[in-house]
Amino acid sequence: MNLSKTNRWAAGILGFALIWSAAGCGGSQAPGPTTPGAGQLVDPPKAGSAKQEGQSGDTKAPAGSKATVYPFKVKDATGKEFTFNKAPERIVSVSPSETETLFALGLGDRVIGVSDFCDYPAEALTKPKMGSIVKPNEEALIAANADVVLSGVSLKVPVVEQLRGLKVNVFKVEPKTMNDVMDNILMFGRLFDKQEQAEQLVAVMKANRQKVTDAVKDLKPEQKKKVFIEFSPGWTVGKGEFIDELIALAGGVNIAADQQGYNEINEEKVIAANPQVILYPDNLLDDKSKKTLDQVIKERSGWGGIEAVKNNRLIGLDKNLMSRPGPRMAESLVDIAKGIYPELVK
Length: 346
Prior knowledge:
By secondary structure, the protein is of the alpha/beta class. The protein is built from 12 helices and 12 strands. The N and C termini lie far apart (43 Å).
């Protein structure tokens, strides 16, 4: 490639954001957080209260109450402090993960705009479109006159600040772990006065995480399987990102965990690591070859000797579930665990 290292990294991240966020368009939709089946979900335990970071001491609701007391103060991922005098009524989301959270909290009627890639649940497809997840449509956002605009991992800080300069009230989250996602859900519960719904949603996520960790807890280090993930053609992910955490929680060993963040794959390194399981986004086509990613992987020179390829342990995962650090993240964890250890996770 003629691209510099920095440009290659940027191209990979953009590809991750666009390919994965758009992946569900036109396809069948995965079951939501309350849909049983496929061994993905368990009954949630009784929801409890949660302590929120970034809120002032005078915003706590009275004991035994789930109603938010306003004004509510909270800092977003950029460090900006927001004060909400009441629950926002006009909400825009330019992040598929945050859009899923809003609808899961029962806030669909307050959502007045979403990104072009927000496709779950089906109702999100009917909302006015606000442009890209990496650079939303400025005119559309200004015209929406939203009380708050939620943004996620794909919207970088310079763009956030640019929008704020246009008087768009952008609130950014940057979850890196499942705990981050659950904390954000609880925080949104406080912000939008949907605390009970948020706690119930987090309870489901915790129950499914516990189900997985209990299933793999007795694995000895030498029994843990080596895992390679290729989230888009030629790209993998290392430590410091939620996908790496999901692999670890599922009892796997990410062969790229010695690297930070998203990286171009080193084919020789993958061959040498000899992963026992390969994870990839199902039904994702390679733009160059027009082949599915699993076909591309199998046909690479020298990869036929990799244990995962020899034993046909290439596991296709739902493109949206794995790419979105949102309320369905625990479902993705269950799918990953079942893919790595089908004998342990039913």
